[in-house]
Amino acid sequence: MHASVVTHFDSAPTWTEFPEPEPRGAEVVVDVVAAGLHPRVRSQADGSHYTSEGALPLVPGVDGVGRFPDGTLRYFAVQSDTRGSMAERTAVDPRASVVLPDGADPARVAAGVNPVMSSWVALRRRIAFPDGARVLVLGATGASGRAAVQVAKHLGASHVVASGRSAERLAGLPALGADVVVPLDDVEAIGRAASDVDVVIDYVWGAPAAAVMRTLVTAREARGERLDWIAIGSTAGQEAPIPSAALRASGLTIVGSGQGSVGTSGFVAELPGIVGAIADGTITVDATALPMRTVADAWAGQVDTGTSRVVLEV
Prior knowledge:
This protein is 30% helix and 24% strand. The chain has helices spanning 39-45, 106-126, 143-154, 167-171, 187-194, 206-219, 244-248, 264-279, 295-299, and strands at residues 2-5, 14-17, 28-36, 63-67, 73-77, 89-92, 97-99, 134-138, 159-164, 180-183, 199-202, 226-231, 251-256, 287-291, 309-313. Helix 4 links the parallel strand 9 (159-164) and strand 10. The protein starts with a strand and ends with a strand.
C-alpha cells in the first residue's frame, strides 16, 4: 500500500510504499477515506508532542474517516503513535469509532472532530460546566477556537466572549455565536468584557494568558467566585508566568485538558455527540480536501486554505 511516511523528524512526510498494517488485539484493518492534517498531527510527525514515542519511520495521523470491514463508514481514532491514518489503510480498534449518520460529509467530519473535541471534552469532562455559564475563549480565531465558541453555546453557555489576534477572523465569530469579540492584545478590553465569566477556554497560554489572568482576577467584583481556567493549547508559549497572588486572592482554578488528563474512555464516550453535531451542521466546520498523494505540498503550506482545516483524501 501507499502511505505518508516520516523518516526524519525535521522533514515532511512523503507519499510512498509502506508495509500493510498488522492489526493487534481487537483491531481491524480499515480503508481510509479522509484524514485531517491537524496541528496535533504535525507535532506527532516532528516528534515534539508530549506523547511522542520517538520512533521512526512513522505514518502520521491521529484520526479519520474510513470504510470498515462490515461496510460501514465511520469516524475513527488511532491509538498508535507510529501507524497513523494518513495511509491507504490503517489498523483501528472499532471501539474507538462512530458510524457516520446518513448523508454526513466524510471530509467535514475528518476535519472537525479533532478541533471540536478539544473544547467539548474539556467542558464535559474536566469541569462542572454550569448551564447558562459565561465563557471566554482565548485563541478564538484558530480552528479549535472557532469551534470552541460554537461548542460552548451548544453545551449551554449563555454568553461567549471571543478573543484572538486576527481582526478579520474575529469579525466572523458573532455569526458562530460569539456575543462579544475582543483583540487578544487589548488586555484591558478583555478584562472589561470578561470580568464576570465562569470559564476560560485557553488555546494560547504563555505570557498573553498570564496577562489576561491577572487582569480578570483584578476586574472581578466577587473575586472569590469560582473561575475555571482550562488550558488546552499553547500557541503563545509552553510556560506562563502566573503570580501566586492570582491564585491566593481569587477563586481561580487552573486545569488542563488533553491526552492523559482525560482517559480514552472519556474521549470515546463523547464521540457520538461530537460527530452528530458536525454531521447535522450544528457546529460549522470549514474543510479543504486535497489528495493524500500531495501530502508533502500540503505539509509545506503550499496550498492556501484560509481558515479551513486541511483534509487529505485517499
